[in-house]
Amino acid sequence: MAAGAPSTADSGKLRFGIVGAAAIAKKNVRGMKKLDCVEVVAVGSRSLDKAAAFIEETGLKATAMAFGSYEEVIADPRVQAVYMPLPAGLHVEWVKRACDHGKHVLLEKPIALTPEGADEIAAMCQAANVQLMDGTMFMHNPRVKEFESHLPSLGELKNFTSTFCWMGDDDFFQNDVRTQKGLDEHGCLGDIGWYCIRAMLMLFGWEKPVCVQAHAGPKFNKSGVLMHVGATIVYKDGKTGSLDCGFDHATTEAFQVAGTKGIMHCNDFCIPAREDRSTFTTSDAQFLTDLDTRMSQQTESHEVHLKLPQEAMMFKAFTELVRKVQAGEAPEQHWANISVMTQKIVCAIQLSAENDCQNVQLNL
Amino acid sequence: MAAGAPSTADSGKLRFGIVGAAAIAKKNVRGMKKLDCVEVVAVGSRSLDKAAAFIEETGLKATAMAFGSYEEVIADPRVQAVYMPLPAGLHVEWVKRACDHGKHVLLEKPIALTPEGADEIAAMCQAANVQLMDGTMFMHNPRVKEFESHLPSLGELKNFTSTFCWMGDDDFFQNDVRTQKGLDEHGCLGDIGWYCIRAMLMLFGWEKPVCVQAHAGPKFNKSGVLMHVGATIVYKDGKTGSLDCGFDHATTEAFQVAGTKGIMHCNDFCIPAREDRSTFTTSDAQFLTDLDTRMSQQTESHEVHLKLPQEAMMFKAFTELVRKVQAGEAPEQHWANISVMTQKIVCAIQLSAENDCQNVQLNL
Fold it and tell me: What is the ipTM of this complex?
């Protein structure tokens, strides 16, 4: 069953189908609409009405058809790539269908419920010769390049700390998929801990850590889903990264990476406070001056101006990779690899939190 | 053996003896000299020359005599109170002597090497009817009252996070007492982790936590002294506090306390960046606005102006408590109690770090 105004002529744009009419997709559609290189030609939901309402609300009527199933979007021959904001528990099944139809996949995070599921998703996409990327928007903010360019000034990196929390309301705690077993059962860890882990991996140059341990006192809801958890991730050389994430208190969204010569701090690393400008600071390694009395550390502010919001930059980057595959290159594997690495760390922390915060070895 | 210019007439000021000519004592002497209510009449070191040099360097010649032993300072009948910046491993012994002579004790932190030592110190001071307080200066910054007055706006408190690190140099790692077993063998945990724990206890209203667990990957030097450690402290109601402290990377000195309605952040909580002005921020619990796109959290800055540096405020507060004891009141036990509580948490985290980061129950 389909309804709406199909896009008839080839626009030269990458034609996306959206599989699942989740709230996060609205933000991404807003980003896609700012790009000349993509268009949304199909939106599928379990209910045709919901898909049509999504198209209406997001202003996609000129290009997108509504479908009452995910399958029809994936099978639509006009669709070249799918954006899949489904709960993680559905990803293996629906990525498989997308691969069967040769559709490139921009997949919401967390990407899977298990390490094996993450591996399977990456392997299916590689075998089907389709590009895989997860929906971690902040990675496409040009601020990330600025982080990377300032890292050498920090000396030898030693420690990463991060905290990403926000306060859920009654409706969230009762109804949201991130509070329920089976679909997005990694709770706060899969939803926002994911970003802390990803930032750490990026700042530590994608080096593979060796083990994780959840911090004492993880909080589960009655269904056994994490509502707050901290964890430390350990590297072979002794470097550590820690995160603290939860749905149980007011908003925090910060990381700090520290080296022998300086620190870098960003207090809105995932969702920038402003759309057109992203900031962070670096500080030197000074400590005390006269009579051990005063702090003498100097801090410098950095600012990056954005012409497009980071979610638009994500679809632009994905589209460029897809164009390369369409031109005959193999799919870029970095994005798939970091999705899998992030997911495996999420799963290991979950395992530790469920087992008295024992140390869990990683096999990345 | 004594040398220097004794203070002959009773000045009406509380007369201090300094037991140990440590670097930290120079900062405190600078603070004491800003006060009308105290004077330093004796400085004792293991070497008379060192005590004399300390008096010379700190400009105490008009009032203070140099002694070549700790014992002589404590026994000096002019001395009413001792400030004791000795390594923690010497505290039980020298606090006992001070108590034997009925001298009030302002004791550097960490106060002891063991929970039993901390209890013994507190019990000795109580039995001798002398006031005990530890040298945690930031507690006497008027900013602490401002922290406390803003706490109710944060709603139900859920989580405290803190990080206090600075980068040691070669001389520090080779020679400092905080890198050696036996004297200040809790390393970074006793030195700067202490402050994180104290801030947490204060912000959580001196409630007693139930257990601690060191974070994965604590770093010990070759002598087995902690150079970096993280830990989480758990309360009965599920509240948690975490700290991350070390001598192995550039300076960080921040805490954040988060509740259901807001967060409070202070990025120089222990040693204020400026002597005359202390700052912190509070933020509300807003998260996202339009299309889940932008952060809408509002942050407010707070500022406290200081007429005296916090170390002077500490000696002023201590002197006021001593005057009450001299007037016949019992010594105030709150300060002793929080010293012991802080020390027991330090010792429990140390135990966890030395035992594969196992959970350690507290008995406070």
Answer: 0.93
